[in-house]
Write a structure and sequence with these properties.
Elements (H helix, E strand, L loop, with lengths): L2 E3 L2 H11 L3 H8 L9 H4 L3 E3 H11 L3 H5 L12 H4 L9 H23 L17 H12 L7 H14 L3 E5 L13 E4 L3 E5 L5 H17 L3 E3 L13 H15 L2 H7 L11 H10 L4 H10 L5 H31 L15 H12 L5 H8 L11
Parallel strand pairs: 3-5
Antiparallel strand pairs: 1-2, 4-5, 4-6
């Protein structure tokens, strides 16, 4: 078996970056091996190429990374994992991979913008948690919130496009069903101007709320990685920062409907918990019924006990719908019926396209690199120029 000499310090650097132990790595690479690899076989300078490939399947750096003789230094600019200790989620390996992927993307596009003399300065003001989130949300809603959208996907796309006008990058990523390492996060904000969202095909309303929440982090300029659940917004243990971002997101999305929500009678068994009214409001704005009921418990328009009953019933309703959908897929497969549609395609921010176009026109990148970064086929390049 062929071996190769590597710079072991570069592997050790990745362990620090991902906050993984040697035992964690061994567990990952031994999952499908009949004969498990030992620590001595994995963590050494002269390593089998097959073993190195297994290691890099975790970190996705490319083999040349491990061959570089330079010893890497811990840099705050390299990763949020070096800039911050604690996050609002216990991150899976898949989550760490996604965060690292977009850190690298952020650094790369920033460099391309500078080389092509493209200015991407901050255009929106900085705020603090002492500022009123409702006032700020109402002010920004006028310039950022799309108008006359036919559905939630168009609304999401419109938000991403409008944020691009104010030099905020918004990325989506998709965890397909066959992806080995799934990300247990809904979104995150990387300073100075990158918001990343996980595509939630079954709940675009949640993704829209996540975008608004991460926009809150951008306005505060406080980085975070979030696992956001609409039924956890009333959690009293949330930090002041998270509460501010949740409030901002709610007011930003609700708009004038906050007046209706704030002034309705108290929901209780006597009025059937206002189910019909809440459902009608949810049809008008991209807030789920659970998110609206959560707002009601925050403003004391429903008791905590009644809220828990409603939440439990709604969660069961959502779960039953998911099970029914999965059963339908299984039955269709058995009957030879092909599934409708395809895997969701991430929305591409106009700011990403603009940055890459500038780099292409200035000769900093070639057409192959342009297509690779946009994940498009070469024959489709004309559609992006």
């Amino acid at each position: 078996m062929k071996t190769i000499a590597i710079n072991i310090s570069r592997l050790e650097h990745l362990l620090k970056l991902y906050r993984l132990s040697k035992e964690d790595i061994l567990l990952q690479i031994n999952r499908e091996l009949k004969k498990p690899l030992t620590e001595k076989e994995v963590f050494k300078s002269d390593i089998k190429i097959s073993v190195l490939n297994k290691i890099d399947s975790i970190f996705n750096k490319g083999i040349n990374y491990y061959l570089d003789p330079l010893k890497p230094k811990v840099s705050l600019e390299e990763s949020i994992f070096f800039r911050k200790d604690l996050f609002n989620a216990e991150l899976t390996l898949g989550a760490k991979q996604r965060v690292t992927q977009f850190e690298e993307e952020k650094i790369a596009l920033s460099a391309l913008a500078k080389l092509s003399n493209l200015k991407i300065d901050r255009l929106l003001s900085y705020y603090s948690i002492q500022d009123n989130p409702k006032e700020i949300a109402n002010n920004l809603r006028g310039i950022l919130f799309p108008k006359n959208n036919q559905n939630n996907k168009e609304l999401l796309k419109g938000l991403i496009n409008n944020l691009a006008e104010y030099n905020v990058f918004v990325y989506e990523f998709v965890d397909t069903h066959n992806k080995r390492e799934k990300a247990n996060i809904n979104g995150f904000f990387l300073s100075p101007n990158v918001i990343v969202l996980k595509r939630i095909q079954t709940s675009l309303k949640r993704e829209i709320f996540t975008l608004a929440h991460e926009l809150g982090h951008y306005l505060l300029n406080i980085e975070e990685i979030d696992e956001i659940y609409e039924d956890n917004l009333s959690n009293t243990s949330l930090s002041k920062i998270e509460k501010w971002c949740n409030d901002f997101a709610y007011f930003f999305i609700a708009g004038n409907y906050d007046d209706i929500i704030s002034n309705i009678e108290k929901a209780s068994p006597k009025n059937d918990y206002l189910h019909n009214l809440i459902e009608n409001i949810s049809k008008e704005i991209p807030l789920s019924r659970i998110a609206i009921y959560t707002r009601l418990v925050i403003i004391n328009k429903i008791s905590r006990d009644d809220y828990n009953i409603v939440k439990s019933n709604l969660q069961k309703e959502y779960k039953d719908a998911e099970i029914e959908n999965e059963l339908k897929k299984v039955l269709n497969k058995e009957r030879g019926i092909k599934p409708e549609g395809r895997n969701p395609v991430p929305i591409i921010s106009p700011l990403v396209k603009k940055t890459l176009q500038s780099a292409l026109y200035e000769g900093i990148i070639n057409e192959s690199e342009f297509c690779k970064r946009l994940n498009i086929k070469p024959e489709k390049i004309e559609n992006f120029l």
